[in-house]
Amino acid sequence: MDYQPSTMDFGRSTPHRGRRTISRFGSAGHRRARPNYSRASVFILVILCLGLGVALGQKKIFSLLDNLRGKPVIIQPVNTRSSAEPFPAIKTGLASNVALITPPEPNRAGPEPTRLIPVSPVPKAFPEAERRLKKIIAVGKGDSISSLSQRYYNLANITLMDLILECNPGITNAHVIKDRQKIKIPEITEASLIIPWTDDTWRIHLGTFSKPESARTYKDEPALKGKEIEIIPHQVSPEETWHRVVAGKFDTRDEALKTVQALKEKGMLPSLRKP
């Protein structure tokens, strides 16, 4: 005899043939089997997920490195300047793919470069230096300013000849002197090249040359950095003009004397060169 549920059993699930059940509310449905996962399966699944994440992360890192390969790496310090413009990049030899950006050096106060003053078209008055006489001689037959320079200085150049003419303003032609004429021969020393200037400063008579271009020799001289080099034309005959080259300003005589000594050691003063 088959079992027949009564009204008292309504609301309870009762086994039925064909695996059919009656729910609390009287609806029918199929029973689902619950999956049975072991701890080992869960552990393996977690390991697989971690491995997949690591593999994807490495792939992304390698892809980023491939993109950066061959591209310069910029190292930029903090810009503390008021300007918003970045510092210019300066490539260095640190590595083939590295560019180091360095800030420009600040402007440091220092001596100005040597300035070459253009030649004056009109001859200017040349202040006389304090000169001591070496000798007063009487010109002999066949003498000239050049031969006198060679005789008393063992050297003949335009600078020495000009110093002789400076002590003898009566000579109007450097190539013509009279027989038995009295000529003063100055003593050439380091101090004799220092000239007191009209503005209570000091100058150095660097040399006298036939062409003004010779003054460029002193333009890049470190001992004259920050000084002015002036070229003063000086007519020595109706057809010829020499060019005196002076450097300054020097605030004291001692400062000028030290510069003369430095230039002498380098052989840059024609009047003090050894024969």
Quick recap of the structure?
The protein is built from four helices and twelve strands. It is an alpha+beta fold and 275 residues long. The strands form four sheets. Strands 6-11-12-10-9 form a five-stranded mixed sheet. It has a three-stranded mixed sheet with strand order 3-5-4, with no helix packed on it.
- Please name the CATH topology of one domain: Alpha-Beta Plaits
Question: What is the CATH architecture assignment of one domain?
Answer: 2-Layer Sandwich
CATH class of one domain: Alpha Beta
Largest pleated sheet: 5 strands, mixed
Shape: rod-shaped
Q: Provide the low-confidence segments as ranges.
A: 7-29, 86-104
> Helicity range of the residues?
10-25%
Q: Provide the spatial order of strands within the biggest beta sheet.
A: 6-11-12-10-9
The first-to-last residue Cα distance is: 152 Å
The structure class reads alpha+beta
How many β-strand runs? 12
**Fraction of residues in β-strands:** 15-25%
Which value, in Å, is the CA radius of gyration? 51 Å
Average the pLDDT over all residues and give the rounded result. Answer: 74
Give the H and E element order: EEHEEEEEHHEEEEEH
Question: Count of helical segments?
Answer: 4
Oligomeric state of this protein: single chain
